[in-house]
Here is the input.
Amino acid sequence: MSELAAHVGVCGVLTLWLALALRAGPALRVPSQRGLWLTVLAATVAITLFQPKVVTWLTEVGGTCRTVSLVRNLIGVLSAGLVLLFIVDSTRARRAHIAVTAGLAAAMGSLLALYLLGADRTVSRTTPQGPADPSSLYWWVLGVAHLAGDAVAVVVCRRYSTRTDDRDLVWSLRLFALGSLLAIAFWCGYLIHLHVRIDGMLPWLSLVMSLHGFLRAASLLVPTATAFARSLTALRTTWQLWPLWRDLVAAVPHVALAPPQRTRVHEVLRPRSPYALQAHRQTIETYDALLDLQQYVRPDAHDRAHRRARQAGLRGERLATAALAGALDQARRAKLAGAPPSTPIPLPGVDRGSPATLLAIARMWPSTTGTLPAPTGSGGPGGPEPGPLHAESDPSRQA
Here is the structure.
């Protein structure tokens, strides 16, 4: 169990430092996020100094277990105080801010004074995390300070998480509250251990503290995770929409702010704008091109494309999407062949330009192009019969 706790502890510390590094720039620029970042920083330093390997290394380079323990505990109390200040600052209660600041200074001053008086000397030298003698006021001041800060954090985070519509903030508060619950469990267990020595309890408490660190890191990384998820969604939209977008803007080039790159791999790996903006732009340009091409839709195009899709065995939504794609492709080829525009014939289901509808058409696009003849050129009304639904075979149209 001790080995597992040590491994989890190292992973938790590394995760915390990674989270701090990733969020440093955005958090320090925004006053409302700065307090949370500094709170997690203080907790990370304390948890780092809690790891046995770190303590061992520090003692080998000249430190002592007492000194490391004091620094860790002072920073831990500072972290608990910063939690309270972060919460109080959000309420803009000046008296509460002064009271928390005074209490934090008193707690840290008491720990330092008791340390100088030797009240912490009962710390085990073989296990730097503890336990302590039950008569030691030093450890009770430390434990109560942590419990007070974490208890308030749980109550306030839970309350505020139900009052906001900001999903990032909701999850940050919930994860922070869960981390505070684990911190409460740790200090309750530790104070109980002062009176009732339970064999094998300290590794479990170390594991709880490490899991608390993971949750602190997760609460800090919520905005980063959300931004990453949005980028993945935009990237997926760009990738799936690209064949349809490329073909439509080739027929209606004036709707595109920039021409398509040679392949969609280039479009993804060498974007000319952020992924979210690129996906949004391609969606709008695809819809604008679709509206323009409705001037080239034949009256019977949708019905003919629908029959061909049904003959190919398509049913349900795939049948409806294949019919739209087939009629749209015929209109595209008609414009490219120089057919004159006529009164627009709206295609069913695309009047609002739903991104989901456009993506559905894009997924069916490679297998539906060329299934209906163009009204002019080689594919006029008297031209050759259209081919069946097929997988795209023109090498020039491959990504």
In short: The chain has 13 helices and no strands. The first helix runs from residue 2 to 29.
